[in-house]
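User: My collaborator sent over this chain with a note saying "see what the structure looks like." That's all I know about it. Can you take a look?
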Amino acid sequence: MTTPRRSIATVCLSGTLEDKVGAAAAAGFDGIEVFEPDLIASPWSPAELAARCADLGLSIDLYQPFRDLDSTDPDRFARNLRRIERKFDVMAQLGTSTVLVCSSVAPDAVADRGQLAEQLAAAADRAAERGLRIAYEALAWGRHVSTWDASWDVVRRADHPALGLCLDSFHVLSRGGDPAGFAAVDRGRIFFLQLADAPHLEMDVLQWSRHHRLFPGQGAFDLPGFLVHVLDAGYDGPLSLEVFNDVFRQADPGRTAVDAMRSLLWLEDQVAAARPDLGLPARPAAPRLTGYSFVELSVDGVSGPLVGDVLARLGFAHTGQHRSKPVQLWEQGGARVLVNASVVRPAATGVAEVAALGLESEDPGRSAERATSLLAPLLPRTRGAAEAELAAVAAPDGTQVFFTRTVPDGWPADFLPTGTPSGGGTGLAGVDHVGLTQPFDSFDEAALFYREVLGLGPDDVTEIPAPFGLIRDRAVTNADRTLRLTLTASLLRRGGWAPRVPAPQHVAFRTDDIVATARALRDAGAPLLTVPGNYYDDLDARFDLDPAQLAAMRELGLFYDETATGRFLHLYTEVLGGRVFFEVVQRIGGYDGYGAANAPVRMAAQRRARLAETAAAG
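Assistant: Without extra context I'll predict from the sequence alone. Here is the result:
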């Protein structure tokens, strides 16, 4: 199989039909499925839509959906045949040969499969007379046909060359269908393929389908395995996305179309790696990322001195000043923090935020090439004649991601020494992870970006009952856990009261002795959080902790978590510059999490600290 044709249903995208076809073409799709309500609402005639698509290089691969064709009422069935004949007229103007017919949900739907096959064959006769085809799809909530194998039984009984199957991954997998059964389908009888991912949810399947579908790689379905079975069954048509999602239907269609295309490329990559014999193009794997070379904070004249003071109290030394930009280099152990004062925010004075991540790549050039091939263009940058050439792309939340290799004559040489040595500091050895809050609308997009563009593996999504509402959290990591990033999003936010930090970010540094580090930080006057005594009383009840260890944790404001594989101790600073805070962590044994159970206590403590600061100021 050569490079497959890639298609997207217009129902996936927001806006008018004019917006949708433009977005699909700009993202590089080869074709579209025309969702009938989009056409009905458009001022374009079917012929004008076909012409516009041709101008944009798009084919029209499917017209959909035609609902409730079969009926136990002969008069109604006759009217339905007349209705589908009119849709064939539309298809002729669109220049498409395939219509999607869904299994019926109507009260008068035909239960007898022999009779249903006869009615579908009657419609297929009319389609064949005009050189058209019917792709029959089992809706997961169909009245009598709700599984793919039931739809194949009906199509097999009809035995008509103009009648075949439409396989929709959501309808198959949401009902627990086994794609291995596709091997029983006669070659050439899978007329169309629709792809959608989804999280595992316990809810009505119709509501699940209409509101919670996702693009491939963003949910929990095994879509690579599904696609392998479809291709093994002989399917050679377009790989088409049909995703009903409330967020996608309200988002910028151009951005959603790019996310959609990236998801198909991810899916193709997975199948090509698992089954090279299927002939999908094999994109080179993402170069290995080994950790953080730096984390860059953007500050202004108000937040800059505050951040610098706290870094010093954390044991960092200001070791370098950029040759041509107002950027400072702070170092301790293997941790490097850049403080960039070149950003001007008239409407957000005093804000500090994570602006960029420097990621160590075994091949920065190939990392950049992969990013551009996955629709993440390189960001324009200005640099001096003697300065390192660094490639960067923008993550969905706007964070700049640099691909680096930290060698003496590389990017560190852009910084002139201040004469201050990095020293021993407070025992911080490097960056353990960075936490970034995502806009709710781009939470799934961000996970796919880091998964496909950077080659990081996503952990499961967890939900945290925070003081200001439910928080969704997901980590992405490299294989050896030397590069960790946590992504969070607030599920709902109503009104302006709740948090004064609507999108917090943090940088977590690792240490091998958090008790010694905590004492050093306290002695240096670092703004550490005060943790309520109730928290430690609860720890004592839940865990079998040594009394001396518990006393030290209570004294120093340390948080604690444990699993079957290891233990985790961590502490936090107050929020700085309205958005950023720091964390110090110690992992013991095989602990692989982030102490998520402690997040509500941390959030409440940070709110109390902000209120105390406000009261003291005014």
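A starting point for your reply to your collaborator: The two ends are 70 Å apart (CA to CA).
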